[in-house]
Amino acid sequence: MNDAIKPLPAVLQRVRYQILLGWLLAVVMPIGLSWVLFDIPVYISTQYITAIGASASLAAGVFAFRRLHIFPGIAAGGYVVMAISATFGLLAIALILLRLDYSRVLLTVIYVASVVVFTLMHLLIGSRQHHRMGVIPGGRTEDLPTLKKVVWCRLERVDMPVPALDGVVADLHFDHSDAWDKRITDLVLDGIPVYDVKQAIEQLTGRVEVERLSENTLGALNPNDVFLQIKAGVDVVVAALTLLVLAPLLIVIGLAIRWETPGPALFRQYRTGFRARPFVVNKFRTMRIADPAALHASDDRTRAMTQVNDTRITRLGAFLRRTRLDELPQLINVVRGEMSLIGPRPEAAELTSWYEQEIPFYHYRHIIKPGITGWAQINQGHVTAVAQIREKLHLDFYYVKNFSFWLDMLIVIRTLQTMVSGSGAR
User: Fold this and answer.
1) Which residues touch 52 (CB under 8 Å, ≥6 apart)?
2) Residue 241: is its pLDDT beyond 50?
3) Which helix (H) or strand (E) holds 116?
């Protein structure tokens, strides 16, 4: 156990008290000050409407952030700002459409206070909150990874007193002694959640490793068909509207590509898609047209790979890759139903054949439609080596197993951040 990490006071460790404290500071206090500074009889009705709407928006924003927070890699307070800004924006639209009287000044003050208070609470309290996980000896728990914000507390003896824990990790497929089986049962009865080590590692790292096929594995990697159909319909509508809005930008980029180097504006390549069916993907061309002699000198697999500091990439192409703008023509593939907005990135057909021979269960990533962006893309970036592709596959399996509206929202947010920072591009 790491004694350097001091636990927070019991009150601040409870989420409901954190929310109550934030509500008092961000909503109640500004309203109380407004009652002192302004004439209550004149503004009382608008204050009530503003207070009720702001409280509902704040609750929805905190709920949205907490739904995003269950996924690995959420540490920055920026997600708080996005969630609260979105819900307060929806509130402002609703108030305008319903023609309700509300205080614009008070609503603005509450919004700013909510963002400041909950961002500070997340940074100050969240930075000190660590997952304190008890570890039952035996099996795969003997080699646990070192993870940020996770403190492994090994329970060396059956009769060892249990400290304050967020949960207990055990290899539930290991043949524990009768004494340990009884202790695990007692922990559950005491209200301490017990997780299988594989499940715990998946949720803490955002990776799912498939070592062998089993009935449970196949069930976990078969997404809900109804959700898939709804997602497909939303994808087509959003992609079509986005194409209409961005049409001027797409035309400008296409003309700039043609002006910089000779050749077509679009690059087309066979990729492996849904249920391993090949399709032609559309991207803005970011490389010079290859010399015919060079094509004969290299194999298909080598040409399909983008190397680090690849000399074929043009200056405009480097910018398009860094900002991910080269991916925009894939919206056409989404409208055609060949791709999704979010999902595992489609690989070139030549690379897919190679990876399937080198990596067990690689073909299972084709169980859902490939996407323009995805969980592996935002966590790892562009990779081609077999070892890196194996890691990418584990990230893809995590998305397939856990994909939902909230995970998709998280991927959208982090994709926008990646477009601004340019990280992971090649």
Assistant:
1) none
2) yes
3) helix 104-126
User: What pLDDT was estimated at residue 235?
Assistant: 94
Beta strands in 1-123 (DSSP E): none
Contact of 389 with 361, CB cutoff 8 Å: no
CA 87 – CA 68 distance, rounded (Å): 14
Cβ atoms of 278 and 349 closer than 8 Å: yes
* DSSP E strand boundaries for 4-66: none
Angle between helices 29-37 and 40-69 (to 10 degrees): 160
7 DSSP 8-state letter: P
31 or 52: which carries more pLDDT confidence? 52
The sign of the CA dihedral 37, 42, 46, 48 is positive
Mean pLDDT of the chain: 79
* Residue partners of 269: CB distance under 8 A and separation at least 6: 280, 281, 283, 304, 348
The pLDDT value given to residue 38:
61
Amino acid, single-letter form, for residue 266 = L
Report how far residue 337's alpha carbon sits from residue 340's, in angstroms, rounded to the nearest whole number: 7
At 416, list the tokens: 């926008």
pLDDT tens per residue, range 137-146: 888 888 888 7
- Tens of pLDDT, residues 333-388: 999 999 999 998 898 888 888 888 888 778 878 888 999 998 888 887 666 667 77
Please tell me the distance from the alpha carbon of residue 233 to that of residue 239, in angstroms, as a whole number. 10
Q: By three-state DSSP, how is residue 21 classified? A: helix
Written as one letter, the residue type at 163 is P
| 344 CB burial (10 A radius; 0-12, 13-18, 19+) | buried
**For position 146, what pLDDT does the model report?**
79
Residue 106 near residue 35 (C-beta atoms within 8 A): no
Is the pTM higher than 0.70?
Answer: no
Q: What pLDDT is attached to residue 214?
A: 55
Q: How big is the CA angle at 343 (ends 327 and 416), to the nearest 5 degrees?
A: 50
Q: What is the pLDDT of residues 170-188, one digit of tens each?
A: 888 888 888 888 888 888 8
Contact assessment for residue 339 and residue 369, using Cβ atoms and an 8 Å cutoff: yes
366 CA to centre of own chain: 20
| Distance (Å, whole) CA 110 – CA 57 | 10
- The CA radius of gyration of the chain, in Å to the nearest whole number, is 26
Report the distance separating Cα 8 and Cα 114, nearest Å: 22
Name the token pair of 58: 């704040």
Rounded Cα gap, residues 23 and 84, in angstroms: 13
The closest of 21, 45, 32, 31 to 105, measured between CA atoms, is: 31
